[in-house]
Amino acid sequence: MEPTVTRGVALNRPANSPIRISFGLFWLVDLVATVFLFLVPYATELNPITTTFYAAIGLPGVVLAGSIYAAVVVLIGHYLSKPYDALFATGAVLVYAFCASNNVILLMSGQAPLEMLVI
After folding, report:
1. Does residue 1 sit within a domain?
2. Most confident of the following: 52-56, 83-87, 103-107, 113-117
């Protein structure tokens, strides 16, 4: 009997699929909202990496930057052991939920939520 050879990296994904689905949905909403931030005259994207990618290759650069961010989050979550992987994924979901809701409110109202609270 010959031993089997496993190639590649064995990655663990967080066991909680609702967390993974939430991450994907919030990431997608944030990505779409970020693309629209570059198309409207009254809003500005603050992330310097995203704006650099946009300056270099346009809207595909925004999508590329967002995809790189998501890939990094997914890879980190795969390398963490349980229960830290689920905690990290939950943290990423909360960050994307905040960013997505902030961007959507900004696009719909023309003002950032913090500016609306201060005024």
Report:
1. no
2. 52-56
Contact (CB, 8 A) for 102 and 112: yes
Decide if 22 is inside a domain: yes
Tokens standing for 65? 């930057």
Q: How far apart are the first and last CA of the chain?
A: 74
> Which of residues 13 and 117 earns the better pLDDT score?
117
Return the axis-axis angle of helices 59-79 and 17-39, rounded to nearest 10°: 160
pTM (predicted TM-score): 0.77
Find out whether 114 and 47 touch, Cβ atoms under 8 Å.
no
Q: Hey, what amino acid is at 50?
A: T
**Range of the structural domain that residue 84 is part of:** 17-118
Q: How many distinct structural domains can be found in the chain?
A: 1
| Dist CA 40 CA 76 (whole Å) | 33
